[in-house]
Design goal:
By secondary structure, this protein is mainly α. The chain contains two helices and no strands. It has a domain at 22-73.
Length: 80
């Protein structure tokens, strides 16, 4: 039977991710909200920019989460 208890490294990673997630998710959501509410003569470039910002933020968030989890699991690099 496998244990579901978290070790100190897992807990450290969880706490670090809890601090990281809210600002990145807020940025992505704000960019997506702006994306759908752009109006005026600069519509197309701003629409494209905010879509790219939301996509890049999502990709960055995914990459940072994966990297943080790998480091925490290997125990080689502390997460802060």
């Amino acid at each position: 039977m496998t244990s579901t208890a978290l070790n100190a490294s897992d807990l450290g990673a969880a706490h670090a991710l809890q601090r990281l997630l809210p600002p990145l998710v807020a940025l992505m959501l704000n960019a997506k909200q702006a994306h759908w509410n752009v109006a005026g003569p600069a519509f197309l470039p701003l629409h494209d920019f905010t879509d790219m910002l939301a996509a890049d933020t999502t990709a960055s968030l995914d990459a940072r989460l994966a990297q943080s989890l790998r480091r925490a699991k290997s125990g080689t690099t502390p997460i802060a």
